[in-house]
Design goal:
Blueprint: E1 2-10, E2 16-25, E3 30-34, H1 41-48, E4 56-61, E5 64-65, H2 74-78, E6 81-84, H3 96-105, H4 111-124, H5 140-152, E7 158-162, H6 170-185, E8 189-194, H7 197-203, E9 206-211, E10 214-218, E11 221-222
Parallel strand pairs: 3-8, 3-9, 6-7, 7-8
Antiparallel strand pairs: 1-2, 1-4, 4-5, 9-10, 10-11
Bound molecules: adenosine-5'-diphosphate (2 copies).
One adenosine-5'-diphosphate binds at residues 11, 13, 15, 17, 35, 37-43.
Length: 228
């Protein structure tokens, strides 16, 4: 589902963010990407969703070869995944229902499909009672669950979450990951970036640690980089 071969990323100012990353993530896996601030986690995610392109190497996600992908095809590629952001990125003037419905509308879904699907997804994340609230009327954890509902509404094969628990308290972080676990059990592949290693440890899932732009361990097994 996700494959990186010899992937390196150096930003225009010369900062080396990732060095020779080799990695395969199978369909149905739940993977935590951990590492300190500045390790290269966000760069890794940006490459996966093709917000950035590598200087070297090959990335394949959901059957799309990202290096040869034309810019005009990026929106089609993005529709194969759901993305959850640390800062939620909800539309302030839209209700919870409309924030989630909007993600369906842009894919050309009909009103009938939206009326059926949005309440179902809101119930999955426990927000049925909040459908008509505005984001500012919700707690941080609730706003993040709206973000999750929006990411799930188009039934993606892959869910990518960038520090989804970064702006909420530990108890709610736990609930968000429980929800992700449930979604994963239904077959969605999940890739979650966090600097909170304890969360990843607690949930006992595949955990890949990035340090100074290299993968240093994969579920506890240290990874040596032959080319270094
Ligand atoms: P993390 O998400 O683990 O905190 P990042 O991927 O954001 O790490 O950053 C990895 C390295 O790349 C850091 O040294 C950071 O300063 C640098 N970096 C990130 N984004 C940019 C950018 N747009 N331009 C230049 N350097 C960047
Ligand atoms: P937290 O403890 O997570 O910060 P809040 O105290 O912000 O949560 O919210 C507690 C509950 O009150 C939540 O269910 C939230 O939806 C509701 N709530 C908070 N602010 C408003 C508001 N301005 N209007 C309506 N409901 C609100």
């Amino acid at each position: 589902m996700i494959e990186l071969k010899g992937v390196s990323k150096t930003y225009d100012n010369g900062t080396v963010a990732l060095k020779d990353i080799n990695l395969t993530i199978q369909k149905g896996e739940f993977v935590f990407i951990v590492g300190a601030s500045g390790a290269g986690k966000s760069t890794f995610l940006k490459l996966i969703i093709r917000e950035e392109v590598p200087n070297a190497g090959e990335i394949t996600v959901n059957g799309f070869k990202l290096s040869s992908m034309k810019k005009k095809n990026v929106p089609y590629f993005r529709r194969t995944m759901g993305i959850v952001f640390q800062d939620f990125r909800l539309i302030p003037k839209m209700t919870v229902f409309d924030n989630v419905a909007f993600a369906m509308r842009v894919t050309g879904a009909t009103t009938r499909q939206i009326r059926k699907r949005v309440p179902y997804v809101l119930s999955q994340v426990g927000l049925t009672d909040k459908a008509h609230c505005l984001p500012k009327e919700l707690s941080g954890g609730e706003q993040q669950r709206v973000g999750l509902a929006r990411a799930l509404v188009n039934n993606p094969d892959l869910l990518v979450a960038d520090e989804p628990t970064g702006n909420i308290d530990p108890q709610l972080s736990f609930e968000i990951i429980e929800l992700l676990n449930e979604i994963n059990r239904k077959g969605t592949t999940i890739l979650m970036v966090t600097h909170e290693r304890e969360l990843a440890n607690w949930f006992d899932r595949r955990t890949i640690e990035i340090r100074d732009g290299s993968i240093v361990s994969d579920s506890g097994r240290s990874v040596s980089n032959e080319s270094q």
